[in-house]
Amino acid sequence: MSNHELHNEDNNHDHHVHHQESFISKYVFSMDHKMIAKQFLITGIIMGTLGMAMSMIFRLQLAFPDMKFPFLESFIGHWGKDGKLDPNFYLALITIHGTIMVFYVLTAGLSGTFSNLLIPLQCGARDMASPFLNMLSYWFFFMSSCVLCFSLFVDGGPASAGWTVYPPLSALPKAIPGSGLGMTLWLVAIILFIASALLGGINYITTVLNMRTKGMKMTRLPLTIWAFLLTACLGLLSFPVLLGAGLLLIFDRSFGTSFYLADIPADLAGGIERVGGSPILFQHLFWFLGHPEVYIIILPALGITSEVIATNSRKPIFGYRAMIGSILAIAILSFIVWGHHMFITGMNPFLGSVFIVGTLVIAVPSAVKVFNYLATLWKGNIKLTPAMLFAIGLVSFFISGGLTGLFLGNAALDINLHDTYFVVAHFHIVMGSAAIFGMMSGIYHWFPKMFGRMLNKTLGYLHFWFTFIAAYCVFFPMHFMGLAGVPRRYYANTAYEPFNAFVDMNIFITVAALIGGAAQLLFLWNFFYSIRYGKKTVQNPWDSNTLEWTAPIKHMHGNWPGEIPHVYRWPYDYSKPGAEHDFIPQTVPEAGQVDPYDEPKLAATIEHHS
């Protein structure tokens, strides 16, 4: 019996469609992929709000280093005594902000939400391959979030070694105040997070490969599913390396080992002299995850953008197979370029040149995606919905941020730019802003599918324009600060005479950041208000071709009543010449085609022709 037959037989079991659920089993410990997607999304939004608030606090410090803000003591207690931000807590804010945004928002909040929502619906499956493991994936993520938030309240403060947690600050519990219990809790949180990511990734891959409905060939999958599939593969191959790095770090911290420590006197290392280790080893292990992590973040956003741009351009996506090829190339190449984060570690120049070549080569498939997006937009019948605006915004950030990556990918230039604001500007544009815009595009596009209601379009437009302009105003000037040598993570740049010239620029950046933060309040109001009071949606509000819009508006555990729809075509038949409408859903057979899945009709046709 084939996989599709097994799947179809399983789909017809009544317990997938008809069973009573309590409040706890439906909304808390749910095994329905749609509810788990909502849980990931709302938890990610809460963590994102926390991360954004942290960035506002340290931006105030950078813009007004000598000013006191009385409200700080009310918000952060003794870390803001007399309205002045403690320098140690400044480092902690940067560390936890980076951790939250990279892992908890842009990885779990983005991929966890849309992989869970769309993989079963767009592949034509009742649910994930293992709904129980899917539920566990969310709860590991939730526990990880709680542990990280708890670390904010412990003695000594949360982890302060930067989001990359380089030794020795992360390996010696007495190195700085944030190297104590807060650092241990950071490691525990990341281990729980990795467990969540691995459980989710196994489920996503298995569902895509084994549970597609009849007719859903791999070459008929939407590009969203291709992106989620390759993202899950990246996570399964790279997150275990970070897990190993974290465990070795715990051994160094708690059991006297020296994997990452070298020439540390006994009085600084808990009474045991540490010799023989290498902090560079940790960097290799961390960045072997860290660079694929960039694509774990951006690939789902690019997949969402592909769907949104094709739908709202009313055109077939340009270069479907080239887009798949570019995703595959990015996934493969992402594993051989991690060394460009380590050019200043004393790397052998020949090895550095290998990483330079790999870094420059990975720009090619990235450029293919950009050109294909622009070709899809070209002469399209464009509908500028909020989702479409955010998708176009992603393409803009991906271009401008990607160009600055060419500077950092060159060792000769990177040695001068490393650890300056140029790096901050680059990755906040190409990864942070682009991925956030992809996530927002997905929320505006699939909100009707998730909640049965529409977001307010006017608030969506305001949210886009304020956020888009603010993001460029915040991060574009940082390139010039970096070119002038201004280092990142410094508590007060005014301590150095040459950097006084950038006081006004820091004020401008902070004002823009506060405006951008206020724009997110518009989104939060729109999101939570519309869940309850938004305009009710119709079955297919965007006239889209993919399978999720054939499922009932009212959610049911099992997605479709009766038989799952069959698929006859690819998902991008928009504005097809001779067609009655400008979209043709995947469930509509080709003209004159006998339904190959209607066995009695097919048998009668064959008999007639014979």
Which key terms come to mind for this protein?
610 residues, mainly alpha, 17 helices, globular, disordered N terminus
Report the β-strand fraction as a percent range: under 5%
Number of strands: 0
Report the sheet with the most strands, covering strand number, pairing sense and barrel closure.
Answer: none
Shape: globular
Low-confidence region ranges = 1-18
**Overall mean pLDDT:** 91
What do these coordinates show?
The structure is a single chain. With 610 residues, the chain is mainly alpha-helical. The chain has 17 helices and no strands. It has helices at residues 3-11, 23-28, 33-63, 71-76, 87-123, 131-150, 181-210, 223-254, 279-313, 320-333, 349-377, 386-408, 411-417, 421-451, 457-483, 503-533, 599-609. Helix 12 runs antiparallel to helix 14 and helix 15 packs antiparallel against helix 16. The chain is globular and about 80 Å long. The protein starts with a helix and ends with a helix. Mean pLDDT is 91; it is low at 1-18.
Draw up the topology in text:
Blueprint lengths: L2 H9 L11 H6 L4 H31 L7 H6 L10 H37 L7 H20 L30 H30 L12 H32 L24 H35 L6 H14 L15 H29 L8 H23 L2 H7 L3 H31 L5 H27 L19 H31 L65 H11 L1
Offer a quick outline of the entry.
The chain is mainly alpha-helical and 610 residues long.
